[in-house]
Amino acid sequence: MALTGLEIYKQLPKKNCGECGPPTCLAFAMALAGGKASLDSCPYVSDAARAALDSAAAPPIAKVVVGSGDTVIELGDETELFRHDKKFYHETAVAFLVSDTLGEAELSDKVAEINQLAFHRVGLEYRIQMVAIKNDSGNPETFKNAVQTVASNTGLALALISENPEAISQALGPVASRKPLVSAATEANWEQMVAAVKDSGCALAVKAAGLDNLAALVEKITGAGYKQLVLDPMPDSVSRAVADFTQIRRLAIKKKFRPFGYPLIAFTQAEDPLEEVTEAAAYVAKYASVVVLKTTDRAALLPLLTLRQNIYTDPQVPIQVEEGIHEVGTPNENSPVYVTTNFSLTYYSVEGEVEGSRIPSHIISVNTDGLSVMTSYADGKFEAEKIAETMKKYGIEAKVKHRNIVIPGGVAVIKGKLEELTGWKVIVGPREASGIAAFAKSQFA
Amino acid sequence: MKEKNTGRVAEVSLGATTAEGGTRTTTIVVGGDTALPFHHFEGEVPHRPVVAMEVQDIVPSWPEHLGKYFRDVWDKPGEWARKGVDVYGADLIYLKLDGIDPEGANRSAADAVAVVKEVLQAVGVPLIVVGCGNTEKDNEVMEAVAEAAAGEKLLLGNAEQDNYRTLTAACLGNGHSIIARSPLDINICKQLNILITEMNMPGNRIVIDPSIGGLGYGIEYAYSIMERSRIGALQGDKMLSMPILCTVGYECWRAKEANSPEEEVPEWGTQETRAIMWEATAASAMLQTGAHILLMRHPQAVALTRKAIDRLMQPNNY
Ligand code: SF4
Fold first, then answer.
1. What residues pair up with B26 in beta bridges, in sequence order?
2. Beta strand spans in A278-423 (E)
3. Structure pTM?
4. Residue of B216, B277, B285 with shortest CB distance to A299
5. Which of the ends of chain A has fewer CB neighbours closer than 10 A, N or C?
């Protein structure tokens, strides 16, 4: 929430000395509001005014960085309660919990398994972000060794989970440059925890049961000068988590309540791996910046990561694939040719079904500005002329010997016109992508 | 920080007991919320969301991972429904009349009525009945169904923007409620509610089906449409304040992710678990954005979703 020039002006010394560049304090305030000047140019601004202005200009939820190098993860920096109001910016980081009670071999195997957790669907790669090592042993030495084992076996970001400042201090030393997330500071340990992470500048989770206690603890820690924070209100049920996360997000965004202006971390409670994922789905929808999971079951993670991608998609931008000729399998000069739009949901439904038919094919995606078949047709963006032009532009006639093209059933009416324009035989395909497999079998098998 | 909402989602009651002029042994009320989903701390969430399991009037071409649970009963809609309720814990039954499709088995209205009666006899829970998607045939069949089950307080669908009059009249005349289905578009959703209420259908006898789109195939559009309608309802917009039905099972089982064997895509993991979770994760997301009735298919996805609802219905007052 940016301040207006007048709001800034109220905080300035009103000397109108001109030393900042512009001739008056008001002109300087206007330049500041427009982002064209820096407060540092005024030598007379009071510390109180500077603090007030800095905090008012800060984003409602701070951006907190975890990891380093190729695995930098940005958390927070969100501005909305509802994705339809603009968008959600930094998708939930997914972390996997491992225990420091595992033997070294077991631990390396587990980490190797986590390293492999990447998924490909609809032309996208879904990645996971972190390995979270938990100090179940209670022993700082064991914890340090486990963290070392994990660190040397993964490029993923790390999270160190212990409430023992001594354990954190020891384990953090060798891996501090990787900027792990440290969890957690509590009412009992916060001073030592802050001391342990201070030099590295690592993100520190702050944990307290209940919103009032959490706010009070955050204020103590920020009061002591540490601000790389992540919040954990310790909900004791999924229902409580939904309520707490909503309150924290609301107060941060609508009231600019500073103690809650940090990203949220959620730990799943369910023991059953599948229940755990339905629980995590709620946290992805409801504002968690980090969710810590126990299960590594791919079959359960794929849907969760798909949901994350859906929720964090920009609602204003229709998602598109590149215009042109796409190949499914290794098509040759006799392979079928389909045409559809460049709206990615349409395109990938078609591609998925064509793939499912097990007949290598060409799919031409026409640039319809990311609109689906019927919407783009109604909008004049999927007419015979446009399709003919795209076919020509990408040289489909050089890729196949036959002259047959399949159009979506919903635009059967353009068949005559398209045949006239191209000289190709137009085959009317099914209305729904789901009909393509059966259609392909009867036409091309 | 509590939001003060002036509006409320309409309460729709489904099913009528003998005392109420029907034959149901249990009835269901959905809606009535005065807050965002599961925000018990600032409003009322008087009724838990419910799971409807799908039954068809014709043997469906469902994949093996569903077939193994239903094959023994799916040629007997009554027993199929009973298995859904008694064995898998369905709150109610969603009977899909795909058998009447003129381009398929083309069963008659009389056949459909017989199936509806068979299911009503077999189970005591409320019933949703939805046509095949062919407007002319649906109108003919649903009129017959509405009459034959007069007083049962069924939920009948689907009314659409260019075909709502016949079904609305049939529901009005026989005491049923209606599903208003719109194609992922909040303006059409609202417009259709206006059209149906203009025929004197009360708002508490309409359920919205926003066409959710599948997980990974556009569900985020539905997510935001539902979130916007709930916000609209809470601000007092009566034409957006109907409870919402999400066809989660239908969307899930046409996705590639529910149907590709693990050998084909090893990195996607075990096929059946993946399909179950495709359905349960979508349901979980829909619950967070305001679903009242979830149409589902896989027994384990149903069980997971019912547990998720139990957890979310726990109080979270401050
Ligand atoms: S230097 Fe500071 S006091 Fe002087 S005119 Fe600029 S803003 Fe005002």
1. none
2. 290-293, 324-328, 337-341, 361-366, 404-407
3. 0.87
4. B277
5. C
Strands A73-76 and A63-66: antiparallel
CB proximity under 8 Å: A 214-273 to B: 237-240, 242-243, 246-247, 250-251, 254-255
The C-alpha atoms of residue B68 and residue A52 are separated, in whole angstroms, by: 65
The two three-digit tokens of residue A113, written as one number: 């398994």
Write down the CATH number for the domain with range A5-57: 1.10.15.40
Instruction: Average the pLDDT over A146-157 and give the result.
Output: 97
**pLDDT band for position A2 (cuts 50, 70, 90):** low
The DSSP secondary-structure symbol of B71 reads: T
Is B237 part of a structural domain of the chain? yes
Contacts of A86 in chain B (CB under 8 A): none
Q: Whose CA is nearest to atom 3 of ligand 1?
A: A15
CA-nearest of B201, B128, B188 to B158 is: B128
Q: How far is B156 from chain A (nearest CA, A)?
A: 24
User: How many domains, chain B?
Assistant: 1
**Pocket lining for ligand 1, CB < 6 angstroms:** A 12-13, 15-20, 24-25, 28, 42, 44
Question: Which CATH number covers residue B155?
Answer: 3.20.20.20
The label of the residue with tokens 């799971």 reads: B51
In a domain, B6, yes or no: no
In a domain, B3, yes or no: no
CATH number of A324-444: 3.40.50.11600
**Length of chain A, in residues:** 445
CA A425 to chain CA mean position, Å: 45
Structure tokens at A21: 């560049």
Q: Using one digit for the tens of pLDDT, what is the confidence trace for A352-396?
A: 888 878 899 999 999 998 888 988 888 889 999 999 999 999 999
Residues spanned by the domain of B38: 11-312
Strand partners, A366: A341
Contacting residues of A for B268, CB less than 8 Å apart:
119, 121, 298-299, 302
**Residue A1 banded pLDDT, cuts 50, 70, 90:** very low
Q: Which two tokens stand for residue A155?
A: 């490029």
Which is it for the CA torsion A233, A64, A58, A242, positive or negative?
negative
Residue A152 touches partner B, C-beta closer than 8 Å: no
User: How much is the pLDDT for A278?
Assistant: 98
Pick the most confident of A123-132, A323-332, B44-53: B44-53
- Residue B70, domain member (yes or no): yes
Residue ranges of the domains in chain A? 5-57, 63-311, 324-444
Please choose, from the candidates B100, B91, B159, the residue with its C-alpha nearest in 3D space to the C-alpha of residue B127: B91
